[in-house]
Amino acid sequence: xxxxxxxxxxxxxxxxxxxxxxxxxxxxxxxxxxxxxxxxxxxxxxxxxxxxxxxxxxxxxxxxxxxxxxxxxxxxxxxxxxxxxxxxxxxxxxxxxxxxxxxxxxxxxxxxxxxxxxxxxxxxxxxxxxxxxxxxxxxxxxxxxxxxxxxxxxxxxxxxxxxxxxxxxxxxxxxxxxxxxxxxxxxxxxxxxxxxxxxxxxxxxxxxxxxxxxxxxxxxxxxxxxxxxxxxxxxxxxxxxxxxxxxxxxxxxxxxxxxxxxxxxxxxxxxxxxxxxxxxxxxxxxxxxxxxxxxxxxxxxxxxxxxxxxxxxxxxxxxxxxxxxxxxxxxxxxxxxxxxxxxxxxxxxxxxxxxxxxxxxxxxxxxxxxxxxxxxxxxxxxxxxxxxxxxxxxxxxxxxxxxxxxxxxxxxxxxxxxxxxxxxxxxxxxxxxxxxxxxxxxxxxxxxxxxxxxxxxxxxxxxxxxxxxxxxxxxxxxxxxxxxxxxxxxxxxxxxxxxxxxxxxxxxxxxxxxxxxxxxxxxxxxxxxxxxxxxxxxxxxxxxxxxxxxx
Length: 551
Prior knowledge:
Layout: H1 3-10, E1 17-20, H2 28-37, E2 40-43, H3 47-65, H4 90-102, E3 111-114, H5 117-131, H6 140-151, E4 155-156, E5 159-161, H7 170-180, E6 187-189, E7 195-197, H8 198-204, H9 216-221, H10 225-255, H11 265-270, H12 274-287, H13 313-316, H14 318-340, E8 348-349, E9 364-365, H15 373-401, H16 425-440, H17 463-495, H18 506-513, H19 526-535, H20 542-545
Parallel strand pairs: 1-2
Antiparallel strand pairs: 3-5, 4-6, 6-7, 8-9
Helix pairs in contact: 1-14, 2-5, 2-10, 5-6, 5-10, 10-12, 10-14, 10-15, 10-17, 12-14, 14-15, 15-16, 15-17, 16-17, 17-19
């Protein structure tokens, strides 16, 4: 059973404040609460945790003063790690390390259209949560400054291009750090969505410019929190769309006069993949008592002459088609929550509990926790699931408009009095464009990397590249689902009306009819698609979720 999916779809996301304790696991629902619903964050770590954070920060400064070569702290960044700054007296070494920390500003290069502000808010939350355990050598005041920015509802404007997902999401985090430092030429959205100078907006609310010490500049930018935020928010939205797509599919199957027997329990019994069973159970339960779908769980009904005794693949094979995607989605949810509660920085400092045998605590460790490969892999998989959904909606619409394939519906779902008989032809053509565009975006990203940054970053994830592509596919998916829902409800009316629908699918039909009327004559339909696509998030999924196999 895909328990993670069911937990996510049922999770309450309306928290007013998300408490960060560094040992309570942050959930996707809490990330959504901060990102989409304006929830505040509060830092509520224990005295022992705060002492660990302070101890590592102090040990780091002592090592700087003592001239210990430390990556990104007393030695420069990336391919320049051989440039070590440990000469001079203690005070001079500390001042040099501070200047080096401030020089991380060179990563603030993000350009292009802005990343959605919800992702930026989620990314700031995750950066804060990833630094709270204290292994990164930062002071509490730095974390409090970031929390204050989140709670101000002033959101940094971050360009979508610039990160390799290699040494974390450097360019994106660099922009947030520039905002915290009140640098010139950086901007935020205020609560009304207006673009304003970050410096003036933060001064107005009394936020003090962040003063970063040695290592802190690197700690603030060196993580995969933007990639994780993107993955978390897409996963949340896509999970909701998946359940909604089950409802739309059930209406389409009824419009096409499919058979409930396609989802007979025997099939999952003899091929017991959990995702296949989950999909079959939901679709079967959504179709029970329909007067349009063949109710053949106990026997075959006789077909009219010339009517196929079995349904096409886009109906009959939906459990097998979505089964692997369901299982992967369930795993992705777990992967996100591991990542969201992990430390993705470099270098880190050991504690008495984390040393190896014979090792003294508070020594720095260089590693690669910033590499966003788990998120890149997850985003590639999420994009594939979204594309599968686009293609399925395209296939159902293609059958519904074709009088040779739709079991007796009029051409292009046209009303009897419509002269052209082409009412839904334009939407089906557009669906074809979206399906092809989505297919082009299907290419996996994390096998396409090059060698970057003075040959230092020779393995990279490009997770945010995958995220950008997946966000684009999500736009296509919502329009594809909206199109198919509008067409399916038109087909239901042509069949005789909503009274013939199964009881679980009737609420979805009613929801659509509040927004889109039955189309009697040829007319522009694109505005209906846009309106419905934007409103899909408002659909109450309770009736569909109730039909899941857990009930």
